[in-house]
Amino acid sequence: MKKRTKIIASLGPSTSTGTKLEKMMLAGTDVFRINLSHTSIEDAKTLIDLVRSKEKKMGRPVAVMIDLQGQKIRIKGFSKKTHITLKTGDNFIINPDLNDNGSQKQVGITYKDLYKNVYEGDELLLSDALIKLRVIKIQSKKIHTTVERGGKLKPHQGLNKKGGGLSLSGITAKDKSDLKKSLSYEYDYIAVSFVKDEKDILAIKNIIKNKDIKVIAKIERNEALKNIDKITKASDGLLVARGDLGVEIGIEQLPAAQRFLIRKAISFDKLAIVATQMMESMITNRVPTRAEVFDVANAVTSGVDAIMFSAETAIGKYPSDVINEASRICAESEGAYIRPLSVDRVVPKTLPVDQVIALSAVYSAKLTKVVAIAALTETGSTALWMSRVQSNIPIYAMTQNVKTARRICLYKGVQSIKLDRLEENHAQANMQVIGLMKKIGTVKKGDLVIITKGDLLGTSGGTNAMKVVEVGNMLEINE
Fold first, then answer.
1. Around 31, how many Cα atoms within 13 Å sit in the side-chain half-sphere?
2. Sign of the C-alpha dihedral, residues 122, 127, 132, 136?
3. Domains and CATH numbers, the chain
4. Percentage helix, strand, coil, to 5, in the chain?
5. H/E element holding 405?
6. Bridge partners of 241?
7. Pairing verdict, β 142-149 and 131-139
8. What is the pTM of this model?
9. Residue among 450, 290, 434 nearest 382 (CA)
10. How far apart are CA 123 and CA 248, in angstroms?
């Protein structure tokens, strides 16, 4: 296994062909993301089908994540102008009654009730905080501001309130419609944008019902930080969306917030993802900056499951180069620096047997000369629990379930292997596992390997056994 940290690549105009997908998979992409802020739900179906065809050709699982648009507040347009330029000291009005006929003096807004959520003295930030406005008064629903930091303002750019406090829900009618239409598609994760509290996650799960789709909460609002325990408990993972979050809380607060959110996810045994401007310079350049290398390395050594690329792969000139560079940084960082994480886990008084086996396998491997762990799993839960423990011992999750094989692609330190069939005899199953690991060059004669499985192979939640085997010294008949 070359790297433990997983890579999520966003699809877009630069990566919507089969050849590009293959190159990105070879470079180390584990999950493909489809952003519904820029892609219709119908076009998403086409992209998912393309990914699945390449998955079959390449002979290895890959996961797909759909990212809901969410309730992002945007300004409207300026008639036929491509932009306006605001100067420090200008007066500027946010007018909910305008459509796309804004001017140098005022602009419309997608959130008509914004005036109910802002007060004199508040900071409004436009275009990812490049432009700063100060509210001076609110009159007849119009928000009058003065420009404290000017710049070029383009139509439909985002608006945030410094410190948060906007009352709008994270789930829109479009999100619900897109989600319902997508339920017949072959994807694995749904990312929920602008989550405010656990109710947003529960609303998504109510639509999904019994579909085997995991829910990732994107943390990009100040309100989410205040409700983080309930959000983490309700979701399957946290995605630190550093763009909007940094605008709301202030970029100087972002490093501490990122560390806090990663540890929060780990403490609940949930997934942790970091996104936004990981290698932004590679949109137009073949190599990252030194600062970007350190940013990726810092995320990796913080215990994150995955790093996510957006514009770098969706519209960038060198998408496969981005993945290649990121893979190399991940592998080098993981090999050079493993540090214990200070995490207070939320652990119940008693654990289910399969979780006990999973944790025992990892801790036992760290105390012995075991070179790898093989987890025979039906749902992927055993592999997920193993991946929550910081370790440099490779974990191979083997399953007959295609959905499970794909979902595991997001688990840190776990390589997913799809089995066409699993031997029913336990000794033969052990031989099958070791044979696969020898084939991919993971183990050799004399190596110790831990195998976890259940008495009833292929049964959900049935993992109840852990065995240490020596390669080349195993029984080939039923014991």
1. 32
2. negative
3. 6-70+169-335 (3.20.20.60), 84-161 (2.40.33.10), 353-470 (3.40.1380.20)
4. 35, 25, 40
5. helix 402-407
6. 275
7. antiparallel
8. 0.91
9. 450
10. 10
* Beta-bridge partner residues of 65: 33, 189
Calculate ∠ Cα 458-461-462, nearest 5°. Answer: 60
**Kind of pairing, strands 370-376 and 395-399?**
parallel
Roughly what angle, to the nearest 10 degrees, separates helices 242-249 and 254-267?
Answer: 120
Is the Cβ–Cβ distance between 189 and 107 less than 8 Å? no
Spatial distance between the Cα atoms of 372 and 392, rounded to a whole number of angstroms: 9
All residue ranges of the chain with pLDDT < 70 are 1, 167, 338-344, 347, 456-461, 475-479
Question: Which residues are CB-contacts of 357 (< 8 A; sequence separation ≥ 6)?
Answer: 382, 452, 463, 464, 465, 466
Maximum pairwise Cα distance, the chain: 83
For residue 233, count other CB atoms closer than 10 A to its CB. 12
Q: What is the pLDDT of residues 116-154, one digit of tens each?
A: 999 999 999 998 889 999 999 999 999 999 999 999 999
Residue with tokens 């383009």: 154
**Euclidean distance between CA atoms 170 and 437, whole angstroms:** 44
Residue positions annotated with a catalytic role: 33, 74, 218, 276
Q: What confidence score (pLDDT) does residue 166 get?
A: 77
Distance (Å, whole) CA 376 – CA 259? 32
Task: Please report the pLDDT score of residue 463 as a whole number.
Answer: 84
d(CA 56, CA 60): 7
| pLDDT value for 344 | 66
Two tokens at 158? 């985002």
Contact (Cβ atoms closer than 8 angstroms) between residue 65 and residue 34: yes
Q: How many CB atoms lie within 10 A of CB 210?
A: 5
Q: Which residues does residue 74 pair with via DSSP β-bridges, in sequence order? A: 158
Q: Which two tokens stand for residue 339?
A: 């540090």
**What's the rounded Cα separation, in Å, for the pair 266 and 268?**
5
Q: Are 169 and 70 in contact (CB under 8 A)?
A: no
Here the tokens at position 207 are: 């639509």
Q: CA-CA distance, 270 to 262, in Å (whole number)?
A: 9
Distances (CA, A) of 20 to 24, 66, 185, 324, 409: 6, 19, 22, 13, 19
Query: For tokens 């020596």, what's the residue?
Result: 470
**Phi and psi for 153 in degrees, rounded to 5?**
-115, 120
Helix (H) or strand (E) holding 230: helix 228-234
Of the candidates 25, 26, 8, 4, the one whose C-alpha atom is nearest the C-alpha of residue 331 is: 4
